[in-house]
């Protein structure tokens, strides 16, 4: 009789625990909805965990926008060095409200402040300014960057920008239109090549084809009386992972309600308040980016007729992406380089520097909110931003080496917890990530053509009728009835049937009796949850396969491709960016000027030419923060009036790198001419210290150092 009695006791224990968890879980949902309702009534809701002051209100600009520039006020006890490069964190306006980049102390804003750099934030209001466009936002961002630079005239380097998701491609557009303003650009989970991806893994890129293009976006804008509801975008994100949306997220809170309440409510503060966009803004995004994929091939023009060409960007671009990101896979984060450049030589000649890192597993939101990511990748990028800014043009991968690993040479030269190396890569490394073949490109081009046709039909025949039947009241009613918002309102203070849930929850907390972890009914609950997750995962796989198969079949049909003009002999499937004669002329002039300076310069030019010469060896195709730290230390030993600015140092690096590219042998043969009036012993010792900071040289690198020593001593 002992076993049945024990089982009955365990059943009662589980029943009590499950009932109490149900009450507490309902209370968590009630608090979530009630807090969300309160934020809806705020003028400028946000989730920033830092105090700030507004520097520029974008609504006061000549081209007003709902964006603002804010200075982050450092917490008490945190010292900020105004001589350091300022950072600007730009939050994504992709349906959610602002603040994700500073929602926690361990965040992008947090690591910038911890490093002692001035930090600014670009956020936005829930509703756009009437008539506001994406181009207006880019112009406002340019003025914000200019203002930050003005406020820090003595800073080492131009302001660095961190753009999350949608903000990433937006700051790239701004930098392309105003390349003289910004320093390095950090793109975190930012899609720039929307068609890119691999079959079986990236279904989000097919969504435009399911509805025949972007006419549904126009319909949503018309029904919203000129406004587009960000809840549509957030719902699309959620539909990507039905197991997490419909079960795992809620179940995890229910099963761990005693410990997960705070974390859940903090995240839902950001997730639960979708913002609005002007219909013109979202139409620009869907036409030119989601379906048209026009940003990476340079076919977008501003109102003045200027082409938005990403090759105009002169600042280094840091791309942070992850294999676990189902919203912005690595192919979409990096594929724009393959659209811009045929080969590595063209990229180097164009003066473009790109650093990328591929995380193994972190998801899309984790790139912005994960404390582990903030304390590793974002922290290290912040600390090494000056080194990134002076890297010679080319493609690099950031490699993070734990300082505690055995055999790490001179770990004390690295500031953070890791030693960071920027190792040279080539464009073939990006091609190896996977991508579309010509037939896939033809399918996406078919969607783009069909979208233009359907958009024209909608604008001509349906849009006038829809606009005549809608007004601001009907648009507001539709927004309030959106399923995304209803689920919050049903569990909130707007539901009178839940008015006593908080009192009941307090009573439950006072009498809380959790079940023991080995309770068999608790284990059955977990097993049932796993079965539900598995079923939803199977549904997701089948759904995604069906979507992909429909897309491939429908848009791969020769008849449809013929009707939209993509089977003609002159049809251009892969729309690569065109040549820019003006740019090529500037590059040619720069190379000619560099060639004239082959035998000109002094100690700085000689030392940098020697360093770059050694670094061009196969073993040394990397920039190491330990070498840069050594260079910095040598600089600090000089009298203040002899210290070179970072901007001047960057100019010398670029010039000497170009000279070596033009003719390495002639450049090295001319090296002694640069040393005519130089303390050669001191200069050579500096070269040795810098090049051996990360360890002994071997092979070709050692041979090149020996040659440099001979030239310095000749």
From TrEMBL:
SUPFAM superfamilies: alpha/beta-Hydrolases (SSF53474). It holds the Pfam family DUF3141. Gene3D superfamilies: alpha/beta hydrolase. InterPro entries: AB_hydrolase_fold, DUF3141, PHA/PHB_synthase. This is DUF3141 domain-containing protein. It comes from Pseudoduganella guangdongensis.
